[in-house]
Amino acid sequence: MRYRLLKGLQLNGPWQGKDKWTSETQGYGKKLPKGKTMNELVWSCDFEKEAKAALNPKCTNDQPKAPNGKTGLFYKMDIDWDVPEITSAAWAWMEEIEKSAVRDNAISNKAVTFKDAALRQYLNLMRPSITKIGCAEVLCKEKGVNKYRAFCLTDQAPLKDNEVVYEAGKGGCDKGETCPKGLTCKKGLCAKP
Fold this sequence. Notes:
Elements: H1 2-6, E1 11-12, H2 23-26, E2 30-31, E3 42-43, H3 45-54, E4 71-79, H4 86-99, E5 111-113, H5 120-126, E6 132-142, E7 145-154, E8 164-167, E9 184-186, E10 189-191
Parallel strand pairs: 3-6
Antiparallel strand pairs: 1-2, 4-7, 5-8, 6-7, 9-10
Protein name: SCP domain-containing protein
InterPro entries: CAP_dom (IPR014044), CAP_sf (IPR035940)
Organism: Ancylostoma ceylanicum
């Protein structure tokens, strides 16, 4: 998903997958602009431990508090016919862009800014500056219901209203953009050497 956004392939908003484009079948119908660069995202065992410490093992509905300087992403599902897993949480966060569109006034030819609370989890995951993520999960069985909770941490503070999510550009370091200092271009993403 991060690669799709970088390359300008991510549709902005609802899309029904029809072959012929109409405003009724394709929803909003626009793509988000190509990004300038995107950092490679790697798993952090330390963040996983922090997320586990913050996540209530009793499967409450309370969102855990993320440590200062980190973004917390929380997911909860109560279901009686399946056992969710961490991919369920990631999928739900990625699907936010399929249910809501980034507002036109948040998109310019220079950047995409944060103005949409309904896209909070998605946009925080799509920030090119994040480099680390770690997650924890807990499952409680209560009266025949699987109560699943997941909590992930990334290495950037949460987006604030009107903050730049990403800069628009050519579509990555393999398209002529320069990676941040200390990172090198690896398959279009900026990564640690």
